[in-house]
Amino acid sequence: MTAPIFVAEALTKVYRSGDVEIWALRGIDLELFEGEMAVFLGPSGSGKSTLLNIMGGLDQASSGKVRFRDTDLTACTENQLTRYRRDHVGFIFQFYNLIPSLTAWENVSLVTEISRNPMNPGEALEMVGLKDRMTHFPAQLSGGEQQRVAIARAIVKRPEVMLCDEPTGALDSKTGVLVLEALSRVNTELGTTMALITHNAAIRQIAHRVFSFHDGRIAEAHVNERRAKASEVVW
Prior knowledge:
The protein is of the alpha/beta class.
């Protein structure tokens, strides 16, 4: 067993609107390990995205702790969280957020300007199967290709962890498999730790572990004895 890269202890998140309290997280305890691919499964409103945002330094917990290696993220300042996101984390969202006026290569290249030890943008695009599409603009790419550009943009800075929020949510099953293949390759070949949010139970097949969320809690944690290839996922 490798060392834990994330440790969450009694993590809560409460949103307040006037006198109303909305509990997004209700005491989450979680460990994620180096090189692991974890899938967070559950319906909308179950707390998955809130936890991912706190792990990524995009949001702060109401109570409890979450640690990245030896750093207590819940005690960090905004400047410290900005450096943490820049140096250690890659984000993938349901919508690609590419710059329309830039080619695939240029969209990926932008990140290398603020990275400490980036890979070549072409290498990152080749890794996600877009060697022949580097000079294309987003409007010339399919949805799946745009998402793979977004993956290349995330991995080009060699992050230790990638946090993926519904990366196949806007894609059909065939295109979604290509995106999952790209993510699996990054996890396997680069050893990047991944947490992937989905409401699609089929995607659980590619994970090392699956965490099922319900009402702000982890209802179940499951270890996959045999991790499936993306091409074997039955949607």
